[in-house]
Design a protein that fits this description.
Blueprint (H helix, E strand, L loop, with lengths): L9 H8 L4 E5 L6 H8 L5 E3 L3 H9 L1 H6 L4 E5 L7 H10 L6 E6 L2 H11 L4 E5 L5 H4 L9 H7 L3 H5 L4 H20 L5 H13 L7 H8 L3 H13 L3 E4 L15 E4 L2 H7 L14 H19 L6 E5 L5 E8 L2 E8 L10 H11 L7 E8 L5 E3 L2 E5 L12
Parallel strand pairs: 1-4, 1-5, 2-3, 3-4, 10-11, 11-13
Antiparallel strand pairs: 6-7, 8-9, 9-10, 12-13
Helix pairs in contact: 5-6, 8-14, 11-12, 12-13
Length: about 400
C-alpha cells in the first residue's frame, strides 16, 4: 500500500470548509489534490470527472448527476465539466440547504474563470503545490542529501514508492504534453512545445527574455508568451516579478523564470543522477529555483499571496528574493555553495544601504541567506540558514 503523508495545507482546508459551502483545491497534476481532499473529507462521496462515463453523465444531465450527492461530494478535475459550477451555485444558494462541495482542478486559469462567473463569494480557493521539504521527510526512508532532494523533487508518487524520478517524469511530461496542454490550448506541434519546455528549464533563475526564448525555439514572441502562459496555467513554471518600488534606480522590468518542482527541472536539464548536480553548470539555478519554490509553498500553505519579488537594477546589482508584508520586508540571497563566503553578503549589504538612502520606502528590513551547507549562524546582521532548515523558518512576515 502506498504511503500517505499529512500535507501542510490540511489545517487550512479544514478551517475554510467550516466557513464556505465550497472549497476549491487547485495545483499541478499529481501534486496530491485528490489524496488530500479524500483524507480531509472521508465522509463525502467521490467522483472523478476524468473518467469518461462520469464526465458524460455530468455533461448530459448535470442536475441528475449532482442529485446523487444530497450532502455534497468531492468532484475531481471539475474543469472537465465546467457547466457543473453553475448548478452547484444553485444548490448552495437554496435556503436551508446543507452540504459540502470540494472541487479540485489542475488548470488554474480555466477553473478560476469558471469559478469567478459561478461561485464568486461561495468558494474558498487554495493551491496545493508539490511536496515541501518537511512533507518529503514524512515518508519512510526519505532522501536526505541536498543533491538527492533537488533531483527527486516533490511529486508524491516519486516518494511513495521510491520510483526513480527520471522514469516517472518521462511519463509525466508525455502525459502533460499530449493531454493536459490540449485541454488548455490547441497546440498542434507538441515536439516544438517540448523543446520550448526544455529551453525554459535552461533559463530557470534568469531574467526572462521572451524574444530570445522564442527565437531559440523557432517561434514568434507572441507564441512564446502564449505557451509560457500555458505552462503557468498548469503550475509548472512561475514568473517572479521585479520589485517596482521607487528606489531612485533604473530597475529591471522583466520577470525571472522559476520551476515549481526541482525534480522536473533536473529532468528537463538532462540530470539523471543526483551526483551530476554537484558539478552541473545549472547547479546554482536549480538550487535557487528550489529555494524560491519552497518559500512560495510555505506562503501558499498559509493562505498568503506570494508578495514575492526580486531586485535588479540596470547595472546588474541583484537580490534573489524580496518579500513584502506591511511595514516589513525580507531580503533573501540564495547560494548553492556549501561554505559561507564573504561575498555571499555583498548584495544584501548593498540593498540595505539603498533602503537607508531613500525616503520613498522605509520598511523594517530583515535579511536571510539560504545556502547549500549545514551550519546556521547570525553574521553581519544576516540570518544564515542551511538548506535543510528552510522549512523551519517563518516566511509569513507576520
Amino acid at each position: 500500500m502506498a504511503t500517505i503523508v499529512r500535507r501542510n495545507l490540511e489545517g487550512r482546508v479544514r478551517s475554510l470548509a467550516r466557513r464556505f459551502p465550497v472549497v476549491t483545491v487547485t495545483g499541478p497534476r499529481q501534486s496530491g489534490k485528490t489524496t488530500l481532499c479524500r483524507q480531509v473529507f472521508p465522509g463525502l462521496p467521490y467522483a472523478n470527472l476524468e473518467t469518461p462515463e462520469v464526465r458524460e453523465a455530468a455533461r448530459i444531465d448535470p442536475r441528475g448527476f449532482l442529485a446523487q450527492f444530497p450532502r455534497g461530494a468531492v468532484l475531481d478535475e471539475v474543469q472537465r465539466a465546467p457547466d457543473l459550477l453553475s448548478y452547484i451555485q444553485v444548490l448552495v444558494d437554496e435556503p436551508g440547504r446543507r452540504g459540502r462541495w470540494v472541487l479540485t482542478g489542475s488548470q488554474h486559469f480555466g477553473l478560476l474563470e469558471g469559478i469567478s462567473q459561478s461561485l464568486a463569494g461561495r468558494t474558498a480557493v487554495v493551491q496545493l503545490l508539490p511536496l515541501a521539504l518537511d512533507e518529503v521527510r514524512r515518508f519512510p526512508r526519505p532522501r536526505r542529501g541536498l543533491w538527492d532532494v533537488l533531483w527527486s523533487g516533490g511529486y508524491p508518487r516519486i516518494h511513495q514508492g521510491r520510483v526513480p524520478p527520471s522514469e516517472w517524469l518521462t511519463g509525466y511530461v508525455a502525459t502533460y504534453l499530449e493531454r493536459d496542454v490540449q485541454q488548455v490550448a490547441r497546440i498542434g506541434d507538441l515536439q516544438a512545445l517540448q523543446t520550448f519546455l526544455r529551453l525554459c528549464a535552461g533559463r530557470a533563475g534568469q531574467v526572462l527574455n521572451l524574444a530570445a526564448l522564442g527565437a531559440d525555439c523557432g517561434i514568434t514572441q507572441p507564441t512564446a508568451r502564449a505557451w509560457l502562459t500555458v505552462l503557468e496555467t498548469s503550475f509548472l513554471v512561475y514568473r517572479l516579478p521585479p520589485l517596482h518600488r521607487n528606489l531612485r534606480k533604473r530597475l529591471t522590468r522583466s520577470p525571472k523564470l522559476y520551476f515549481y518542482d526541482s525534480g522536473l527541472l533536473c529532468y528537463l536539464l538532462g540530470v539523471r543522477e543526483p551526483a551530476q548536480l554537484e558539478t552541473h553548470p545549472h547547479r546554482g539555478a536549480v538550487f535557487e529555483s528550489w529555494a524560491v519554490s519552497e518559500i512560495l509553498k510555505a506562503r501558499a500553505n498559509l493562505g498568503l499571496p506570494p508578495d514575492a519579488f526580486f531586485y535588479r537594477d540596470h547595472r546588474g546589482e541583484e537580490v534573489d528574493l524580496v518579500l513584502e508584508g506591511g511595514s516589513r520586508a525580507l531580503a533573501v540571497e540564495i547560494k548553492s555553495g556549501r561554505t559561507v563566503a564573504q561575498d555571499f553578503f555583498a548584495a544584501l549589504d548593498r540593498f540595505s544601504r539603498l533602503l537607508e538612502g531613500t525616503t520613498a520606502w522605509k520598511p523594517r528590513l530583515e535579511r536571510r541567506l539560504i545556502y547549500g551547507g549545514e551550519g546556521a549562524q547570525d553574521r553581519l546582521g544576516v540570518k544564515v540558514v542551511p538548506w535543510s532548515r528552510i522549512a523551519e523558518l517563518d516566511w509569513s512576515l507576520s
